[in-house]
């Protein structure tokens, strides 16, 4: 006996004989068949998201035979559940009605009295169509994620310094596993690049790398963006949408700026990570997923936990392995090869010959504190390429004069005093804009206000 196909088929007809016959015939081929006597009862079943094919009668009122009721229901059901394929049940010879039904969203039609084998074939074909459309959507999302992989090349991770060599050695070990990773470090230290590198070296390298900037997602759209939504779940939900976790299934999801999540967002994310299942907004059924999670932040999560700003249980779910990427000022040996890399990159971009670089310029770059780290260095090199004479880069081309501090300007070595002076300097340079101050210092606003109170800033 042929094995049944795992599928849920729904039949809606006001004739109990048709329902009984349909159930018997279709259960020979499909694992689950449900029957209803009116479309008004369909919502509860269809909302579960399991039904893939629906057989729909065209008349329900006593004496009705023009099919107008069925046409209205096709329009409603196709709009509400576009992923469900509708096959209409009509009387023999009503070809014009079948044509109109298909214009409104029906996939096929079957005529009464039924030919058992034909109806099985029609349902099977509709099921194949439904699943092929789902696969197309899944592949489109996967392709979008895979495009992000094209940006990363392992030779872009420069590691001449001992600090970075140690980090890369650890990354190579971690990449062989499925362990969740938490990347810590200041702004611009290359957390996104490191996340891509771990994915590139992992067994999941042929699958999606999905990057999500949590700092740019509002709380109201958080669930929809990460977990997906059902059409009509809210005002702008004009179609079913797969969330980032589903789109990354089989691959890696990179959750950047994890420290920006509100308590409510943290709670929802924790539940999904713990259960390895998600529920789209507006749906009732859960969906399993398989992703490797890499998270990153420039926030001090342990301090946030102490202050009740970040969930400790979420922190431990994310940091099976924890990396602390060193700032550029602590990996000076990497500056010359980075500068060389960026010079070649921007000369190619702007169609210029590759200039030499004066040793004094390199010395100056090594003295600079680089508050923006690698990102700031990249911008400095780009600016130098644009402004230079195209033959040789000198120190002045990098425009760092006003930023470089001469030795002895800060006389104290007391850590708290250094912190106070740093905060004071950044407040002045940011003209009192506390959002900019927090971002420059790489801490959250709550942490900043606590430090301002500690050091008596007004």
Count the strands? 16
Instruction: Extract low-pLDDT stretches.
Output: 149-154, 403-409
Strand-residue fraction? Answer: 15-25%
Q: What percentage of residues falls in helices of 4 or more residues?
A: 40-55%
Instruction: Figure out the total of helices.
Output: 18
Structural class: alpha/beta
Distance from N terminus to C terminus (CA atoms, Å) equals 82 Å
Query: What can be said about the biggest beta sheet?
Result: 5 strands, parallel
* Shape, per Cα inertia axes: elongated
Architecture overview:
The structure is a single chain. Helix 6 (162-175) packs across helix 7 (191-200) and helix 13 crosses helix 15. Strand 4, helix 4 (95-103) and strand 5 (108-112) form a beta-alpha-beta unit. Mean pLDDT is 86; it is low at 149-154 and 403-409. With 458 residues, the chain is of the alpha/beta class. The protein is built from 18 helices and 16 strands.
Report a brief summary of the structure.
This protein is α/β, with parallel strands linked by helices and about 450 residues long. The protein contains 18 helices and 16 strands.
Task: Provide key terms for this protein.
16 strands; five-stranded parallel sheet; single chain; alpha/beta; 458 residues; 45% helix
SSE layout and pairings?
Layout: E1 5-12, H1 16-27, E2 30-36, H2 42-46, E3 51-57, H3 68-80, E4 85-91, H4 95-103, E5 108-112, H5 116-149, H6 162-175, E6 181-184, H7 191-200, E7 209-213, H8 222-227, E8 228-229, E9 241-242, H9 244-247, E10 252-256, H10 263-275, E11 277-278, E12 287-288, E13 292-297, H11 301-306, H12 312-318, E14 321-324, H13 335-350, E15 356-357, H14 359-367, H15 373-387, E16 392-393, H16 415-429, H17 434-441, H18 445-454
Parallel strand pairs: 1-2, 1-3, 3-4, 4-5, 6-13, 6-14, 7-10, 10-13, 15-16
Antiparallel strand pairs: 8-9, 11-12
Helix pairs in contact: 6-7, 13-15
